[in-house]
Structures
1.
Amino acid sequence: MKFVRGVVIVPAYNEAGSIERVVEDVKQAVPGFDVVVIDDGSTDATASIVPDWATVISLPFNLGIGGAMQTGYRFAAEHGYDIAVQVDGDGQHPASEIVGLVETLREGDADMVIGSRFLERGQYRQSAARAAGSRVLRLLLRILTGRTYTDCTSGFRVANRRVILAFSHWYPDDYPEPEVVLLLHRAGFRVTETSVRMHQRVSGRSSIPLGRGLYYVLKVAVALLLDTARQPWPQAKVGAA
Amino acid sequence: MTLTLILLAIGNMLLLMAIRSLRKQRLKERHALLFVAVGVPFLALAVWPDAIGWLSGWLGIEYQTVLLLAVTTFFLVLNFNLLSIVSIQERRITSLAQMVAIMAQKLSVDREHRTSRSPTLPIERDDPDANNRDVA
């Protein structure tokens, strides 16, 4: 089997309560992979808590999840990584599931694999409001792509070199997950899902509080519709499939 | 008379804002030109209040409200232009912040490497054979 260089990107904003455990768990699960924590302008001790062996990139100010993720992908592109894994810094994504995600990427035909909470029924419970919002976005993506993505809002993902290059070139700003799925699909990338378990948050604050859920769904729905007129990743920048 | 004073005040204010911002280098020339382009018509209207009616007639616009709509559209286009400038700048700032953060990380790694690789100089007074070697 060909040797691959992998990196786990952990975006973190004020995650001092969970970041150390998340990073240690990742190292234990995939010891051959490097870990890079993107400190997104945290005002707490997030950056200083990260163990020395992990790379910390501290953004000068808060860019939001899109800007932080893209920083990780830029780092991965510059350092020649073949595989990049996205893991949230809040402890929701169990590191033990990374191996499964990476194997699905390497064995299958996919350019990006999404870790889905809902591929197997009854695995993950969410509030009625969140479930309704997810259903709307799932339906919209189904109309726009012709495919069913059971968990398009999941940030637990693994990407190959082509996607790393694409993301380092352009990445959506706010609430990027569903947009990325549509844009990759439109650009000819292959996106699949695999079932994963997910924890509830260990600490910190969700990037989408419940009260802003309606705004989130509306904003993402409009962005998805606008994305049908976008082509952010020209072949010249990311290479042919 | 009141209308004339109001129009004079608005026109002068826009022109003064443009000049002041230019002097303090807070506004680029091309953007200041927009203020001048909007301020001058206000002054013209103060001096010649019937200009709107004359302009409507000259352009063949029957209702003056249509001209008002055209002016509103102009401001909307202006606003759109400014928002697109802000969006582009925001993208550039994001990109710069990302590059700065990645380069800062690279610099700190390089510094660590240099520190760990710098040879430790022998300290003569700690060398017990140093005096013997000199005599020999």
2.
Amino acid sequence: MQYLLMIYGDEAAMGAATPEQGKAMGEAYARFTQDIVKSGHLKGGDKLKPSSTATTIRRGDGKSLTTDGPFAETREQLSGYYIIEAKDLDEALMIAGKMPFSAGAVEVRPIDSLARQY
Amino acid sequence: MGPLLDKAAIEAVYRHEAGRVLATLIRLVGDFELAEEGAQDAFEAALLRWPASGLPDNPRAWLVNTGRHKAIDRIRRRVTLRGKLKILAAESSIAGPEADLEEIEDDRLRLIFTCCHPALALETRVALTLRTVCGLSTAAVASIFLVSEETMAQRLVRAKSKIREAGIPYEVPGRELLAERLAGVLAVVYLAFTEGYAPSAGTATTRPELCTEAIRLCRLLDQLLPDEPEIAGLLALMLLHAARLDGRSDGAGELLLLEEQDRTRWDRAAIAEGKALVERALSAPRRIGPYGVQAAIAVLHAEAPSFAATDWPQIAALYQVLLRLAPTPVVELNAAAARSMVEGPEPALQLVDALTATGALDSYWPLHAARADLLGRMGRKTEAQAAYARALPLVRLEAERRLLERKMRR
């Protein structure tokens, strides 16, 4: 099965990190990514630009409304994602558990492969 | 050909085998609901066939194989793409030899770990385990959670759907995960037991049938994983509490305090079994855990000839061990109460006052009742009454309310 791992963190806290902390975090993620490339679990993924760069289109009542900002204003924002191949939820959770984030959360969500059209 | 069978005899065989049959069918067909339908179909087939054919040599194997064929029939009747994909997967397993029955005990363990997976909400784990592993009806599970049968049925369907869609494995976790996941399984078993021992809502003072189910489930776990001291510890703890269940209330349904209970009403056989399990847990190569320590405390209570002649110093010492293993506010409260029996109420009150100041147990009535008891023993009656008055609005059971009112009148 494929799983989407969504990394949520506090952008304000991440923005307040020193350059050394930022560099250490980047290197830790690079090592994690290399590990899951080697183990064959990685299918895709990237870091995202901050939620201040997000634009949302809302639709309802037959109208579309384009607004500045992410879909939901929350304390923690989506900062990046991985797509992995895993045998089952336990394997996906094991991989997600090795992510080097120090605060925040990772949501693990199965990808509905039967709906894939490419 | 075996003896002639009537419906009641077949139902008895089925009840005995249902848990194992379902657990194995889930592995073979890879889907909870389909397995449940297959198991039900197999039972109906048995009702038709067995009265004429007699009991098969191996009823379990008969039910598993019939259930598997019925499940495949059901898939064939579905015309969706999803169904066709499942036929391919299921037929590849049916084409093999007849169900390998040696794996059946492992299947029950797989089922328990799947139902208690942390990706499901705690209440859902308890409900799904009672329904699927213990074989309680949906109506019975609904009545435990005080919801309608329809609501519970929907909750169970959603849980089974998450197991399928999220890829929750049907496996006993590997060594690196086993300790953590087993703790989760034991938490589910203990929650089921405590809900039977002291229901969190409703009018019943106890629900003994739920205690029985939790003990039965823990016995199964102990049989399947005999080297885990915490399973033995939890089984002992539940047996020792259950042994005193009858003595906890009088004929009129009034709750009795430990010091008021008639100790001849305690179940000595269950106490002896609990004690033997604690001794086993203590001698296990792996170190004893919080359940084992609580069970050891329960042994000392159960063996004491009277409240006054209880080995309080030993109980207080075990609470200090428990505090190191499981430093929770409730354990702190119990440790303080035990200490008061050794050193008197003054030092215990200091601990309880410090605990009260943290606010962690503000809405936990036993905190205020314990404080009231200590104050009363020190002769500070007005403060004791005030503490009882804080406890009263927090109780959920009528019997608990009457117990507190009785203590207030003293």
